């Protein structure tokens, strides 16, 4: 994947968390309670193991991470 910010090639990797991986529009006082946040989006896309995993691309050049939730890569 090409970085949408600088055009360099990005490296595929993963964002992982034991207790759930969510995006919320506001910070939660306790991150572990993000699963209860209003308007949350579940980013984890792998239920095959005990960790929540979302595929993510990292750009070394501009230090950005793009998370592609809902899609599995090999």
Spell out the blueprint of helices and strands.
Elements: E1 11-17, E2 22-23, E3 41-42, E4 52-59, E5 64-67
Antiparallel strand pairs: 1-4, 2-3, 4-5
Structure in a nutshell:
This protein is mainly β and 74 residues long.
Please tell me about this protein's structure.
This protein is an all-beta fold and 74 residues long. The chain has one domain. It has strands spanning 11-17, 22-23, 41-42, 52-59, 64-67. It has a three-stranded antiparallel beta sheet with strand order 1-4-5, with no helix packed on it. It has a two-stranded antiparallel ribbon with strand order 2-3. Strand 4 (52-59) and strand 5 form a beta hairpin.
Salient structural properties:
elongated, 74 residues, mainly beta
Provide the gyration radius in Å.
13 Å
- Please write the string of helix (H) and strand (E) elements: EEEEE
The overall pLDDT average reads 79
Low-pLDDT runs of 5+ residues are none
Give the terminus-to-terminus CA distance: 14 Å
Helix content: under 10%
């Amino acid at each position: 994947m090409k970085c949408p910010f600088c055009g360099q090639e990005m490296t595929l990797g993963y964002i992982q968390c034991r207790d759930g991986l969510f995006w919320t529009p506001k910070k939660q006082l306790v991150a572990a309670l993000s699963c209860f946040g209003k308007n949350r989006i579940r980013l984890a896309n792998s239920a095959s193991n005990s960790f929540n995993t979302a595929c993510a691309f990292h750009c070394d050049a501009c230090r950005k991470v793009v998370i592609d939730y809902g899609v599995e890569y090999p």
